[in-house]
Amino acid sequence: MKRFGVALAFGACAVALVLASVVAANSLFAVPAPTDCGTWSSPQSVTGAAITAQYGEIRNCLLVDKTWVLTTLGRVGSAGVVATLPCADATCLDPRIDHPLSAWNISVAPNPGGATVLRSDPTNGRVLVSNGGREFFFDLRSLIFSPAGS
What we know:
By secondary structure, the protein is an alpha+beta fold.
């Protein structure tokens, strides 16, 4: 009976470890929500409304190192965009502060359809973006898309 209890306890620990590993792995690839940047990125804010009106619904918003990154689903018949706003100070990095549309760098995705961030890598300043059924790296410094296979 004692062996069974130890095996059961060991089995429960193993299951807990596996589940924790799955959750951790999935969080690495979790798609950032449109509101991860704060209230200014919501469609009800001045900036969010302007972005939505011009470039379609906001799909993702995240901070990569010291750059805000935002993607959209595009408008009917047009591609989504990757918009970036590099920050040089704490005020810019504050998610409660509005970031006017005129301050953003807007890069139209290479294919028709929305742009979705799949993952980011602050060490190399790139995000992996899905667009039109293909994957691209988007360089946050040069603002250039390149096929993910290259």
